[in-house]
């Protein structure tokens, strides 16, 4: 919440007349990776036509991280096959989700995906989000 603190320190003696002097101390707070990324929405929904060409944009997800510098930089990813068996891809920096191939509503009418926002801290923290993509019939 605060990167620096400035303290005014005054020293006084007990003499007559009393003498005093003031100096300032600046304390710099180093960030640690103590915040996980947080998505702007608790879940995302998208709709796409089954005749959309490969690499068509479906939707964009977004997350923020309260940490500073690399601890707060977020990338997006699918992990452990939670990308609709390879039917979707996600751009790591923008969070745009795209189709990888033509989709077939008769085979899969609704996809349930899980994407992750991962910060660049050490160790990295990650947060999942649920994404539902509905395929429109043609």
From TrEMBL:
Q: Which UniProt keywords apply?
A: Calcium, Membrane, Repeat, Transmembrane, Transmembrane helix
**InterPro entries the record matches:** Cadherin-like_dom, Cadherin-like_sf, Cadherin_CS
Instruction: Please give a single GO biological process term from the UniProt record.
Output: homophilic cell adhesion via plasma membrane adhesion molecules
Xref: Pfam families = Cadherin
Any one annotated GO CC term: plasma membrane
Domain of life according to the entry: Eukaryota
Q: Which GO terms describe its molecular function?
A: calcium ion binding
Q: Where in the cell is it found?
A: Membrane
The UniProt entry, under Gene3D superfamilies, shows: Cadherins
Q: Which SMART domains match?
A: CA
Q: Cadherin domain spans which residues? A: 5-39, 40-138
Q: Which PANTHER family match?
A: CADHERIN EGF LAG SEVEN-PASS G-TYPE RECEPTOR 3, FAT ATYPICAL CADHERIN-RELATED
Protein name (record): Cadherin
The top of its lineage is: Eukaryota, Metazoa, Chordata, Craniata, Vertebrata
């Amino acid at each position: 919440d605060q990167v620096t603190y400035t303290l005014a320190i005054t020293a006084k003696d007990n003499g007559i007349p009393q003498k005093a002097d003031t100096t300032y101390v600046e304390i710099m707070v180093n960030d640690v990776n103590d915040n996980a990324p947080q998505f702007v929405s608790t879940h995302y929904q998208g709709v796409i036509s089954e005749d959309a060409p490969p690499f068509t944009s479906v939707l964009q997800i977004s997350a923020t991280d309260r940490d500073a510098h690399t601890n707060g930089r977020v990338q997006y990813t699918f992990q452990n096959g939670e990308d609709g068996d390879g039917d979707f891809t996600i751009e790591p920096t923008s969070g745009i989700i795209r189709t990888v191939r033509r989709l077939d509503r008769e085979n899969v009418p609704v996809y349930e995906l899980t994407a992750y926002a991962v910060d660049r801290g050490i160790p990295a923290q990650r947060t999942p989000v649920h994404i539902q993509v509905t395929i429109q019939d043609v």
